[in-house]
Specification:
832 residues, Rossmann fold, Arc Repressor Mutant, subunit A, cell cycle, cell membrane, alpha+beta, membrane, 29 helices
Length: 832
């Protein structure tokens, strides 16, 4: 009990470790300078001083060790130094009594083996080579087992002592050798000549730029590359034999790392992970949910996995294969266009990922358990789920341990594991807590990986966006049609701009300009300008806030026009309308129909989707708050049916930017790393985004659910974007609609047109009071104080000038007020 209390204090551990290190140095000098003629326990002499470097104390100590355990005494300084280092670095000593027993057993076995091999030492026969202990052990065993049996038993005792004092595992060494051999064999296998492609495949690869050939192109490239080695989506393939060895060596520690393995329909073995979810609180409850997010099949692990029957320990219970959610197939309309979608070879090739270090993962699991035990949180790590950026350790607490007590220890675990950030959350459907620890080596998730995946290729939506990979390594995509609008927030450098680029690249890889048109608003002028000139653009990239407001207002008018058009044809959404138009255009003409008047349906053309991307909402809200907020809310409420979708991004997630009405109409949201918990709650309604790692690490809130999904975003470089943009520019110039940049007729102007000449504006007298009190008059003052439009405010000023209340305009300066304050309330005022 005293040992446990002592090792609980880090400062005492450090002091003890330093003392043990210094003692180890002294032991080494004492043994190295041992002289049998010095005064010791077995030799009495009056000679002073002693030849030993540590003096009389050193000579007595060295003589005692040599006489007791013989040449095994040389192990004592190194064991003492190792123990000091462990203690000084605050490593938890799980059972000091067992370790002490292991040290004694190791000394006895080595001493007995030395006595069995050689009778004397180099010190002129001053003591037996194995010491008294070696002589007693060897002689007593030889009487019973003879020399051969004694050697075998001493070897077994030595191996057992190693298991008691260290984390040595013969099974782990065997596993490492096996993995090394498997890796070498795989390299030899890769050097085999590639199979010859048939002419059809070669032609498919050469003509991979055709619009309908993206799937064929990706399949052809896969034939050349073979199966891509993807990282394990679930638990790492740690050897169960190594785990059993760890359990045997760490008695009382209770570390039980379960790695479930499953067999798919093709007879291939893969490992399963879990999906997370964030609940309300400092950590949440994430889980994969929402209609807009589609699950991908698990990765095939790089680490070779043997059969279930041979490898799984009895503690591992095989589970059924991970079910793949049924996705309702959407009929993809045929493309009638001369445009070609770009090939994926314009994007960078994904580098081969490295395998996981099983020993490192098990060491982290052990440290997590030890750190939690320091706070009286008892339990076991039952499963390890490595991912591309973070590894999830499933911790099963003992009975009586509260979840809230575990979730509050995230910062303490960060300190103990020397991690940047750790998230702790409950895993739905399991009695475990997920502890997400950043990997020492992060995997770079490129956009090409997502675009060449089956999930992206098989998606029929023209607005499919590539999100990235979740914490288990599954590819995540989403359809903007189902969201139907997306809000993105995150601090500077967290990956928000890269996410916008990946979103735009996904759309222009999936759709042609006849299918999707875009309006891009970039007040910062440096983010979206690279896309200027692609045929998808409905307007040039907008950088002026005034033009952005005009574009949003004209988008509202286009939405209203489309709604009336859909209502006139008796359809509910843009897909039904376009299908009806295509069927009418495909109807065969008869000779008797030449003189028949054409159906109005046949004169219409399919409507393209319109995607509006705003890179910095905060800048627009600061300059044109009323106009921007009103247009955004109207579009978010009504534009889904007519195929118009909004993507808003901001690096200032405050309540004056993301207002309640905006957030209520944007059910799908993405938050990258933010500065405070308050900002996380503004974006996601829960805390947790402040603990993200940055560089593309995000929390995604799918529509129709409150469960968050942690995703690591896909990365795309500026060079890749330039190559794809140049590919589109070569196919044609954009067909801009400049009317979107012109201010539409406002309601204020319509009210003014309806007013009869000489009729006074209802707010005219209030406007006169405002300018008299302020002593100056301008349209901006009336717009701010009375919330008027520009045309109405200018008309009121003209009326004031005609009545002699204010002077004429003087350039950009406000007009002079010719009446004194309170003039309107004076009794002699004729107008009162």
């Amino acid at each position: 009990m005293k040992v446990k209390l002592f090792t609980r204090f880090p400062r005492l551990k450090e002091v003890t470790g330093i003392v043990l290190l210094l003692a180890a140095v002294g032991f080494l000098f004492a043994l190295a300078s041992y002289d049998p003629t010095d005064s010791s326990w077995n030799n009495a002499t009056w000679r002073t001083p002693a030849h030993n470097k540590i003096g009389s104390v050193g000579s007595h100590f060295a003589d005692f060790l040599f006489q007791t355990i013989g040449l095994t005494a040389w192990v004592v300084p190194f064991l003492t130094a190792w123990l000091g280092l462990r203690w000084m670095r605050a490593k938890s000593l799980r059972s000091p009594i067992i370790r002490l027993l292991g040290y004694c057993l190791m000394s006895a076995s080595i001493s007995g083996a030395l006595d069995l091999m050689h009778p004397l030492t180099p010190y002129d026969g001053a003591f037996a080579v194995g010491g008294v202990a070696g002589f007693l052990v060897a002689s007593s065993m030889i009487r019973i087992l003879n020399v051969t049996g004694t050697a075998i038993l001493l070897t077994c005792l030595f191996i057992l002592s190693i298991y008691l004092v260290s984390t040595f595992s013969i099974a782990a060494i065997g596993e490492a050798v096996e993995q090394w051999l498997a890796k070498q064999l795989s390299k030899v296998w890769k050097r085999k000549p590639k199979p010859q492609m048939d002419p059809a495949d070669e032609q498919m690869q050469g003509e991979g730029t055709e619009a309908p050939g993206l799937l064929a192109q990706a399949m052809a490239s896969r034939k050349l590359k073979g199966k891509a080695a993807a990282a394990a989506a679930g638990a790492v393939a740690l050897s169960p034999a190594g785990l059993n060895a760890d359990v045997a060596q760490m008695e009382g520690a209770g570390l039980d790392t379960e790695i479930p393995q499953y067999v798919n329909g093709h007879g291939e073995v893969y490992s399963n992970g879990h999906t997370n979810g964030y609940a309300n609180g400092s950590t949440g409850n994430f889980r994969n949910g929402g209609a807009a997010v589609e699950d991908a099949p698990p990765w095939e692990p790089d680490i070779p996995i043997r059969s279930l029957e041979d490898d799984l320990s009895p503690a591992v219970v095989p589970a059924p294969p991970l079910p793949k959610p049924a996705v309702k197939a959407k009929e993809e309309p045929p493309r009638r266009t001369s445009f070609r979608v770009p090939p994926t070879n314009l994007l960078n090739i994904v580098p081969e990922r490295e395998g996981y270090d099983s020993a490192e993962l098990k060491d982290v699991a052990s440290r997590i358990k030890s750190k939690l035990e320091e706070f009286n949180v008892l339990g076991n790590v039952v499963q390890i789920n490595p991912g591309p950026v973070v590894t999830t350790f499933e911790f099963k607490p003992d009975a009586g341990v509260k979840i809230a007590k575990i979730t509050t220890l995230s910062e303490d675990l960060c300190l103990g594991l020397q991690a940047e950030s750790i998230l702790i959350e409950r895993i739905p459907g399991k009695p475990t807590m997920g502890i997400e620890v950043p990997n020492s080596r992060r995997e770079m998730i490129s956009l090409r990986q997502i675009l060449e995946s089956d999930e992206f290729i098989e998606s029929a939506s023209r607005l499919t966006i590539a999100l990235g990979k979740d914490i288990s390594g599954r590819i995540r995509i989403s359809e903007l049609e189902k969201m139907p609008h997306l809000l993105i927030a995150g601090s500077t450098g967290s990956g928000k701009s890269v996410m916008l680029n990946a979103l735009i690249m996904s759309v222009i890889y999936k759709s042609t300009p006849d299918e999707v048109r875009m309006i891009m608003v970039d007040p910062k002028r440096v983010e979206l300008g690279i896309y200027d000139g692609i045929p998808h653009l409905l307007t040039p990239v907008i950088t002026e806030p005034k033009k952005a407001v005009n574009a949003l207002r004209n988008a509202v008018l286009e939405m209203e026009r489309r709604l009336k058009l859909l209502a006139s044809y008796g359809v509910r959404n843009i897909d039904q309308f376009n299908k009806k138009i295509r069927l009418a255009n495909d109807k065969p003409m008869s000779l008797f129909d030449e003189n028949k008047p054409k159906d109005p349906v046949e004169e219409e053309r399919p409507l393209p989707y319109i995607l509006i991307v705003i890179d910095e909402l905060a800048d627009l809200m600061m300059l044109e708050r009323a106009g921007v907020e009103e247009s955004v809310i109207r579009l978010a409420q009504m534009a889904r049916a007519v195929g118009m979708h909004l993507v808003l991004a901001t690096q200032r997630p405050s309540v004056d930017v993301i207002t309640g009405l905006i957030k209520a109409n944007f059910p799908a949201r993405i938050s990258f790393r933010v500065a405070t918990r308050v900002e996380s709650r503004i974006v996601l309604d829960v805390m947790g985004a402040e603990h993200l790692l940055g560089k593309g690490d995000m929390l995604f809130l799918p529509p129709g659910t409150s469960r968050l999904l942690r995703v690591h975003g896909a990365f795309v470089t500026e060079t890749e974007i330039t190559d794809v943009v140049d590919f589109w520019r070569k196919q044609g110039s954009p067909d801009y609609d400049q009317s979107y940049l012109i201010a539409p007729p406002s309601d204020d102007d319509n009210d003014e047109a309806d007013e009869a000449d000489g009729e006074e504006d209802p707010l005219y007298r209030d406007a006169v009071r405002v300018v008299c009190e302020m002593g100056k008059a301008s349209t901006s003052i009336l717009q701010r104080r009375l919330r008027l439009g520009y045309g109405r405010a200018a008309r009121i000023l003209d009326n004031m000038q005609r009545e002699g209340i204010i002077g004429p305009p003087d350039g950009s300066r406000p007009r002079d007020v010719l009446r004194r304050p309170g003039w309107m309330d004076a009794p002699d005022n004729d107008d009162d």
